[in-house]
Design brief:
Layout: H1 4-13, E1 18-22, E2 25-29, H2 30-46, E3 54-58, H3 63-74, E4 78-81, H4 88-98, E5 102-105, E6 111-112, E7 117-118, E8 126-129, H5 133-139, E9 161-166, E10 176-180, H6 181-195, E11 203-205, H7 213-216, H8 218-223, E12 227-230, H9 238-248, E13 251-255, H10 257-269, H11 274-280, E14 281-286, H12 293-303, E15 307-313, E16 316-323, H13 325-329, H14 336-340, E17 345-346, E18 350-355, E19 368-374, E20 380-381, H15 385-391, E21 392-393, E22 396-405, E23 411-416, E24 421-423, E25 426-428, H16 430-437, E26 443-453, E27 457-466, H17 474-484, E28 493-496, H18 510-518
Helix pairs in contact: 1-2, 2-3, 10-12
Length: 520
């Protein structure tokens, strides 16, 4: 099994179909995409790269990202995707740890804005800027009119490494997650059964980093022969995406909840109707963090029923649970409110369990650690057998997320196990408090953490970002919480801040918030 066979299959069936777009401009048909990948594979082989060798992609979103990705797989190589927002020193550590041979970059990731100098990557055979003359030479085929694919795809086994993804590393060094061809094929097929139907007329837009879930969703859209669109800006701009959708057809995309919120803000500020949004967007899949119930209710009201939530981890990419468009929109269901706060039901290829600290199954409704098992679960951590043994036991991935299942199979996440607050001997899940505060008048964003306390063990602290012009005070928030949740769950302190610290994917950095509370 080699994922490149999916591209070859489409190129043979629909050679003249437009496949890759940069903005509104088509830059490759399916035949050209496959030809370029086959040609790149030959270049890799001529340079002495062998099946199983690794190449890094340290790039902002770019049309050539897709060609490097599938060209590497065509040659039997494994890809190491590196977040373009990382510092060069951080990328260097990943490159060294993964023992990569080549790196493909965009020039902007190599610039040090503080010194206005170009940084270097070391220990590699080649570092290729995809916009350079060197890259153009590498991409140039001797006979551009020849539609034959002369370089055969290197056969790989289902459990061979395809994608070596490094976790964000918020605590210590990141770990390399070994994702196989089987894992990614499972993810691609699960998209059709559990997330969305795809046709050749569809267009997926890469506005979130292609080094993560957004890039992986190229696989199911390739399988369906859809169009692949990289915005001209190379990233997220709400106005650009709405205009792009109007030009090339309704877009599908993967986005973090923070990006969804900005799309909804734009639609509201520009007085777009749900019908206007329908012409710009077909499906918006969100994940990376649960979306608060208040936010998804607002999104549905303003943009209409075009949302699907997925839950997965780097260790089970994009495959865990899914909260479907139907369930999100089924407002007449008596449990609709609870389902909006959930992350859906297990996707078809996996099983979900909730266990206690000893790994024993818990009854429905009780909170414990979320476990996942199935063909999407990683092979293990790269060069880290101890971490692999801790994360995977008897085929089950121990996610570190805390949650509970209801009688219909809907999973509701509470928090990461490390975010649980124990105050006065009682467990408090920050998300529950955050959901309440987000309903309070004048509140825009909230993050709740625990602060050490000699009497209570921990006390609950809420960091609150107010809406522009809001005059809400601490006592107003406290009164609201007293009306909505148990007294022991309400925050003991409210910190009004201009913004919340977030990582490159829009997740709030609670570790940083806890650190603030320990500083004088």
């Amino acid at each position: 099994m080699n994922l490149a066979h999916s591209l070859q299959r489409m190129a043979r069936q629909f050679p003249k179909r437009a496949a890759i777009f940069h903005g509104t401009q088509a830059v490759a048909t399916y035949a050209q995409w496959a030809q370029r990948c086959a040609h790149l594979a030959q270049q890799f082989q001529n340079a002495g790269l062998l099946p199983g060798d690794r190449i890094a992609i340290f790039m902002h979103n770019h049309p050539r990202y897709l060609e490097v990705l599938f060209g590497a797989w065509w040659a039997g190589l494994a890809v190491v995707p590196i977040n373009a927002k990382l510092h060069v020193r951080e990328a260097q550590w990943i490159i060294d740890n993964a023992q990569t041979s080549w790196a493909f970059v965009t020039s902007d990731v190599m610039a040090d804005v503080s010194t206005n100098t170009r940084q270097q990557l070391t220990g590699l055979q080649r570092v290729i800027d995809v916009d350079s003359a060197e890259a153009n030479t590498l991409w140039t085929m001797p006979h551009t009119s020849d539609s034959r694919l002369t370089k055969p795809i290197i056969e790989r086994q289902s459990d061979d490494l395809a994608w070596l993804f490094y976790t964000s590393g918020t605590t210590g060094r990141p770990k390399g997650v070994m994702i196989t061809h089987r894992n990614l094929m499972t993810m691609g097929l699960a998209y059709f059964t559990d997330v969305d139907a795809v046709s050749a007329q569809d267009a997926i837009v890469y506005a979130a980093p292609m080094s993560h879930g957004a890039g992986l969703y190229a696989i199911p859209h390739l399988m369906a022969g859809a169009r692949h669109v990289v915005p001209a800006s190379g990233g997220f701009d709400a106005a650009e995406l709405f205009e792009l959708g109007q030009s090339v057809g309704p877009l599908s995309m993967f986005a973090a909840p923070t990006i969804v919120k900005r799309l909804v803000d734009h639609a509201e500020q520009t007085s777009l109707t749900p019908q206007d949004c329908t012409r710009a967007f077909k499906t918006i899949v969100y994940g990376g963090a649960p979306m608060y119930a208040a936010d998804i209710q607002r999104a549905l009201r303003i943009m209409g029923p075009r949302f699907v939530q997925i839950y997965g981890q780097g260790e089970s990419p994009m495959v865990g649970t899914a909260l479907s468009r139907f369930h999100l929109s089924d407002s007449t269901h008596p449990e609709h409110a609870q389902r909006l706060a959930s992350i859906g039901v297990a996707q078809t290829p996996v099983q979900i369990r909730i266990t206690d600290e000893q790994g024993q199954d818990l009854p429905l409704g009780e909170v414990g650690e979320v476990l996942i098992k199935g063909d999407s679960v990683m092979a293990g951590y790269w060069r880290n057998p101890e971490a692999t043994q801790a994360a995977i036991r008897d085929g089950w991935l121990f996610t570190g997320d805390m949650g509970c299942l209801d009688t219909h199979g809907f999973l509701t996440l509470k928090d990461r196990s490390k975010d649980l607050i124990i105050s006065g001997g009682s467990n408090v899940y920050p998300r529950e408090v955050e959901e309440v505060l987000l309903q309070a008048p004048g509140v825009s964003e909230v993050a709740v953490v625990g602060a050490p306390d000699p009497e209570w063990g921990e006390v609950i602290v809420a960091f609150v970002v107010l809406q522009q012009g809001s005059t809400v005070r601490d006592q107003d928030l406290d009164a609201y919480c007293l009306n909505e949740i148990a007294r022991f769950k309400r925050p003991k302190r409210y910190e009004l801040v201009d913004s919340l610290p977030k990582n490159n994917y829009g997740k709030v950095l609670k570790t940083e918030l806890r650190l603030r509370l320990t500083q004088p």
